[in-house]
């Protein structure tokens, strides 16, 4: 009887754990998709706020636009391609995690996960210490999960899978955060400087009446407000990435000197934060 009671308790706790992974993966996946949709792109900033593009805003000649040289944004397009690949890789990973942690799962094809992890290694972040042997190990763990009816066994294998991928995932998400928080935010700061130098200052100097100067100032304030809004989106995206990275590690390894209930409570609070930030990002682009 005691053994049956212990087994029942273990089953209940493990099932609950699997559901926690599922809820976390669902929120994390939604956040990754929304980050890609809401944050500005390098190429967009280049096309709009490159000095050549800005010079057209103050060109009043009839054929002025025809004589300006073409805007060159090749490197910015490459940066967007890299960011897109990172985002898609993370989205695939959390989609897999959500599917495998679903208590209704009957079977799952591990190919998408293996491809995602391989992409992290070969295309996204070459310094990742994730070799073919580790990728094969992850695949083997997933194959063990398939069709496994015991929830406690599935949870243990899921946690093992998350431990296997946590280092690679952390490095990719750190790189993603750096791209947004440093590189992209830096481009927004450069856009501010370019607009001030190539549009605002010349137009204000050319303005002859108080009304003209007021109009120029209004346009400038609107531009600054737009840039501040883009900066806020980036800030929220970085918070999302860092929260997801922290929670993935908590799910994989637990919290030292804490019970599972404490860890789950922290994850639950973070899921609320993640969903709140997702909502704010969605509202910011309406």
Question: What's this, in brief?
Answer:
With 286 residues, the protein is mainly α. It has helices spanning 2-38, 42-49, 51-55, 64-67, 74-100, 111-124, 132-145, 151-206, 210-253, 260-284.
What descriptors fit this protein?
286 residues, mainly alpha, 0% strand
Distance between the termini: 59 Å
Order of helices and strands: HHHHHHHHHH
Q: Hey, roughly how much beta strand do the residues contain?
A: under 5%
Shape: elongated
Beta strands, count: 0
Please give the oligomerization state of what you see: single chain
Please summarize the sheet with the most strands: none
What is Rg? Answer: 24 Å
Total number of helices: 10
In round numbers, the mean pLDDT is: 77
Question: Structural class per helix/strand content?
Answer: mainly alpha
Helix content: over 70%
- Runs in which pLDDT lies below 50 for 5 or more consecutive residues are 1-16, 125-130
Number of domains: 1
Describe what you observe in this structure.
The protein is elongated. It has ten helices and no strands. It has one domain (20-284). 82% of the residues lie in helices and 0% in strands. The model is unreliable at 1-16 and 125-130 (pLDDT under 50). The chain has 286 residues and is mostly helical. It has helices at residues 2-38, 42-49, 51-55, 64-67, 74-100, 111-124, 132-145, 151-206, 210-253, 260-284.
């Amino acid at each position: 009887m005691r053994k049956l009671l212990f087994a029942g308790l273990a089953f209940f706790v493990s099932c609950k754990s699997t559901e926690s992974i599922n809820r976390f993966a669902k929120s994390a996946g939604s956040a990754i998709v929304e980050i890609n949709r809401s944050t500005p792109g390098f190429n967009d900033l280049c096309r709009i706020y490159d000095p050549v593009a800005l010079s057209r805003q103050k060109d009043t000649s009839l054929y002025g636009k025809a004589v300006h040289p073409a805007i060159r944004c090749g490197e910015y397009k490459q940066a967007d391609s890299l960011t897109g690949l990172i985002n898609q890789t993370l989205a695939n990973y959390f989609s897999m995690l959500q599917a495998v942690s679903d208590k209704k799962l009957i079977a799952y094809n591990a190919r998408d996960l293996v491809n995602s992890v391989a992409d992290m290694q070969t295309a996204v972040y070459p310094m990742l210490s994730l070799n073919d042997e580790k990728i094969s190990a992850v695949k083997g763990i997933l194959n063990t999960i398939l069709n496994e009816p015991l929830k406690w066994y599935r949870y243990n294998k899921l946690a093992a899978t998350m431990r296997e991928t946590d280092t690679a995932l952390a490095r990719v998400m750190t790189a993603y955060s750096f791209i947004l928080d440093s590189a992209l935010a830096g481009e927004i700061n450069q856009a501010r400087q370019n607009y001030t130098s190539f549009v605002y200052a010349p137009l204000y100097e050319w303005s002859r009446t108080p009304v003209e100067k007021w109009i120029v100032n209004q346009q400038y304030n609107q531009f600054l407000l737009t840039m501040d809004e883009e900066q806020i989106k980036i800030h929220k995206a970085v918070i999302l990435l860092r929260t997801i990275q922290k929670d993935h590690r908590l799910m994989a390894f637990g919290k030292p000197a804490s019970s599972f209930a404490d860890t789950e409570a922290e994850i639950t609070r973070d899921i609320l934060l993640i969903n709140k930030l997702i909502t704010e990002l969605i509202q910011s682009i309406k």
